[in-house]
């Protein structure tokens, strides 16, 4: 899948990214694609933070995939830098065609190039297809995750 270009997202990509976030069963409940003002403000915060990288994958000017990378330097693991990968999405029209694997290979390469020692991500426990996907890529299901909504 060499016809996909990955790049840093711009504010012009926000509608497409939100569309991808809302394009599944869980996202349809959480996202509000008709009210982009909140997303545009959030994009500004993300874009101004050097520890954040919001990536899009596009073909012929159409955004088909996205992921949000956060780079976290730390003291644990002998001063390791870890990457946290969130909001991985592929357009429903492209699922099953290899774009997700291409995106994640790009993400792992980007993390390596930034000196990361570990890449971690979470996936909702109901996304069993995603779990199989990440296991196929070599991720290890090593932790139980917790959230506390404020």
Automatic annotation (TrEMBL):
PROSITE patterns: GNAT
Keywords, ordered alphabetically: Acyltransferase, Transferase
CDD domains linked: NAT_SF
Stored Pfam families: Acetyltransf_1
Residues covered by the N-acetyltransferase domain: 4-150
SUPFAM superfamilies: Acyl-CoA N-acyltransferases (Nat) (SSF55729)
The protein's name in its UniProt record: GNAT superfamily N-acetyltransferase
């Amino acid at each position: 899948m060499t016809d996909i270009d990955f790049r840093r997202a711009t504010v012009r990509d926000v509608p497409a990214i939100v569309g991808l976030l809302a394009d599944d069963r869980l996202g349809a409940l959480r996202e509000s694609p008709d009210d982009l003002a909140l997303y545009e403000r959030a994009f500004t915060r993300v874009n101004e933070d050097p520890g954040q990288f919001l990536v899009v994958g596009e073909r012929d000017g159409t955004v088909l995939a996205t992921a949000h990378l956060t780079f976290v330097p730390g003291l644990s693991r002998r001063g390791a830098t870890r990457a946290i990968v969130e909001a991985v999405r592929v357009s429903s029209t492209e699922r099953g065609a290899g774009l997700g694997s291409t995106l994640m290979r790009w993400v792992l390469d980007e993390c390596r190039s930034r000196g990361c020692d570990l890449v971690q991500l979470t996936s909702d426990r109901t996304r069993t297809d995603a779990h199989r996907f990440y296991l196929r890529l070599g991720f290890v299901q090593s932790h139980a995750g917790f959230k506390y909504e404020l």
